[in-house]
Amino acid sequence: MKEQNIKLGISIGDLNGIGGEIILKTFEDARMLEFCTPIIFASAKTITFLLKHFNLDINFQGVKSLDAVIEGKLNVVNVWQDNPQIKFGEESSTGGSYAIKSLKAAVEALKSNKIDVLVTAPIHKATIQSEDFNFPGHTDFLNQELEGDSLMFMTTEKLKVGLLTDHVAVRNVSDKIDAKLITQKFNTIQNSLIQDFGISKPKIAFLGINPHVGDNGVIGDEDDSILIPTLAQLREKGHLTYGPYAADSFFGSGNYKNFDAIIAAYHDQGLIPFKTLSFGKGVNYTAGLNKVRTSPDHGTAFEIAGKGIASNSSFKEAVYTALEIFKKRAEYAELTANVLQKQPRKKQYSGRSRGN
């Protein structure tokens, strides 16, 4: 599939946040249309308001259905007909409800192959909650709607961090971690590195659950009783897995550079160093699913919403990453299909000896 034919779906995020701004700033550069056909799930009225507010000069095509999308143009699918009032910087159920309308329409298009990949603008975890949407964020919703087991995978070209647990209260982290979860998350990340990033023999490091990997049980026994034995079993199977390492010195020492990916035990253990090292260039990729979804590495940023100063660098990286992973998956599928096709057939036994 040619790059320009890749249909890139975009959910607009919380209307009161920076989502609309960073989306439009990304496609203000017309060269982006050489890589894909972007499709924003919102409404022409909403996009027109945003363009005027931010003083951006961008041509777009308002379409009523995905069948009317124009290749190589910025398209806007009318998910709603009304004209919701945007109040930049405010946390409101209105902003959240339209974010979910956009997201659900985009995911349905992804499931029905009307779009090839999905990039999501930031949502606010409190304003999205309703009777129709009771998820802590994008990842859990996508895990329900798509095939596979989702995993939050924060990526840059040189740093990739996955999580054993993501949106879980710190007091509940250790209760969630067992051998099954560790193995599942490891397999998801290893498979993603192979098929999504083209790394044939990935080296994966684990961070300890407790400070100093538990100090031989002095600071908790989860590392000794659960993590270390499970990693030993993975190594016995030939996997290139390392650790666990003490998290406090792992990134500052530069040790992370020796591995293709790092698996952290919980959200802040992995995301604080990731965002410190790569903020503005990182991408949140949902690995483990049958479809490709990425997002920027930041939130709604209500404090600067509407001011025209939001950086679109992470959103642009999310677009590039989604396109690259889509192509890598296609290449991997073709490569593995060819390997199967080229396997020699076993000779059929004729029932006669060579001398006959």
Explain what this protein looks like in three dimensions.
This protein is of the alpha/beta class and 356 residues long. It has helices at 19-27, 44-53, 93-111, 138-145, 173-176, 179-195, 222-236, 247-250, 267-278, 313-342, and strands at 7-11, 37-42, 61-63, 75-78, 117-120, 148-155, 160-163, 204-207, 241-245, 261-264, 283-289, 292-296. Helix 7 links the parallel strand 8 and strand 9 (241-245). The longest helix is centred in the C-terminal third of the chain and has 30 residues, at 313-342. Residues 346-356 have low confidence and may be disordered.
Structural class: alpha/beta
Distance between the termini: 53 Å
User: Element order, helices and strands?
Assistant: EHEHEEHEHEEHHEHEHEHEEH
Instruction: Give the low-pLDDT segments.
Output: 346-356
Summarize the structure in short:
By secondary structure, this protein is of the alpha/beta class. Helices cover 36% and strands 17% of the residues.
